[in-house]
Amino acid sequence: MEFQEVTAQDEAESAAHSPFRACAVRYQVKDVARSAAFYTRHLGFQLEQQAGPAFARLRSGSLIVWLSGPGSSGSRPMPDGRRQEPGGWNRIALEVDDLPAQIAVLKKAGLHFRNELETGPGGKQIQLEDPDGNPIELFQPAG
Description:
The chain is α/β, with parallel strands linked by helices. It has helices spanning 8-17, 32-43, 99-108, and strands at residues 25-28, 46-51, 55-60, 63-68, 92-95, 118-120, 123-129, 135-141.
């Protein structure tokens, strides 16, 4: 497989032809205030909006995370009855410069990891869980 470098002009042209714009990652949570505190205290996100116990909007650089509590419109059951719940395997990835050091800090704070540090050709990674079991990948690129 051959990879081509994508330029800013390529991205601008693609965006101009698409009706879609990336805006956020939504996570289902059981307690919006508790989850917002987790993301701001441990991962450096900034709280941009809080709508009571139903919804919060957080930002880290250009990454926006929406936290949807049980009362939010973004957590209502599907027409077939399936409930939207926290957890799963899809995840946001946060890049760090020194992953082992960050793991030590977060473990000292009592946070829960799904696995141990993994190393592969692209770098090192580990999966951290937020208070509701939503995964967050911490990633340090190789080299």
